[in-house]
Amino acid sequence: MYAATSFFSSTQQFCIFKWDSNAWTKLEIGANGILSGIKTLAIDKNNILYVSNDIYPDSKVLRWNGNAWNQIGGLFTYPNTSSSITTDNNSSIYSSSNGSFSVAKWNGLTWTEIGPGANALNASNIIIKLCNDPIGNIYAGGRFNIYNGDSLGVAKWNGNSWLKIGNAIGRGSVNLITALCVGVNGNIYVTGDFTNANGSPYVAVFRQ
After folding, report:
1. Radius of gyration of the chain (CA)
2. Strand 49-55 to 58-64 pairing
3. Looking at residue 48, what is its pLDDT?
4. 206, 166 contact by CB (below 8 A)
5. Beta carbons of 166 and 179 less than 8 angstroms apart
6. pLDDT higher than 90, residue 145
7. Is the pLDDT higher at 165 or at 109?
8. What mean pLDDT is predicted for residues 3-27?
9. Res. 181: pLDDT tops 90
10. Cβ atoms 91, 48 nearer than 8 A
11. Which of 95-104, 157-166, 168-177 has the lowest mean pLDDT?
12. Residue 97 falls in which region: left (phi positive, over 0), alpha (psi -120 to 50) or beta
């Protein structure tokens, strides 16, 4: 397990720590350290670590090769900055964009939107978090409607098209999904800026 700090180390770099079941150890990031904000972490099935890295006003995605960080592709330039990253069962890396309200996949040469044309996500607003499930589907959460105008905040990419997941979640003027994950049983768990009928925040679950 890895964790990222929101503060500088003595070398004026943001830090990443690894838990080895007994203690936290600092990842030796070498000369190519992370000099600006760490937004999200992702690990593929080969245990390769990726970081979404803010370099205001832009952002980039980095991969750790065991000794240094290597940038994947070009910058995500403002306002199309990377908001979250995740991987699939083939160790492909995905990034969501705050400006274009889309999700892109790294094909080894460039970042390409998944589901273009008739199968595009066409989110109406920001995408905050990405995650995957045990069989490799990709999920996007945030504050958006999708291509058919449905109001929700969670959508699923099954490899061919984006699918609606449930209906609008909770109550509130924002209904912003700030975190989501999928359990081994396929259930989707989300939390965010929404409340139940009593005005209390809660964790919502969608049972697939």
Report:
1. 17
2. antiparallel
3. 92
4. yes
5. no
6. no
7. 109
8. 72
9. yes
10. yes
11. 168-177
12. beta
What tokens were used for 169?
């979640």
- Sheet strands side by side (includes 188-195): 171-182, 188-195, 204-206
Cβ(70)–Cβ(31) below 8 Å: no
CB 63, CB 69: distance < 8 Å: yes
d(Cα 47, Cα 36) in Å, to the nearest integer?
23
pLDDT of 9 > 70? The answer is no
CA distances from 88 to 28, 44, 75, 171, 194 (A): 26, 7, 22, 32, 29
CB atoms under 10 Å from CB of 89, counted, come to 13
Q: Which range scores top for mean pLDDT: 25-34, 85-94, 146-155?
A: 85-94
Report pLDDT for 129.
Answer: 92
All residues at 6 or more sequence positions from 33 whose CB lies less than 8 Å from its CB, including other chains: 11, 13, 14, 69
Beta strands in the chain (DSSP E): 2-8, 14-19, 24-26, 38-43, 49-55, 58-64, 69-71, 82-87, 93-97, 102-106, 111-113, 127-132, 138-142, 154-157, 162-164, 171-182, 188-195, 204-206
**What is the pLDDT averaged over residues 188-201?**
84
Contacts of 200 (CB under 8 A, 6+ apart): none
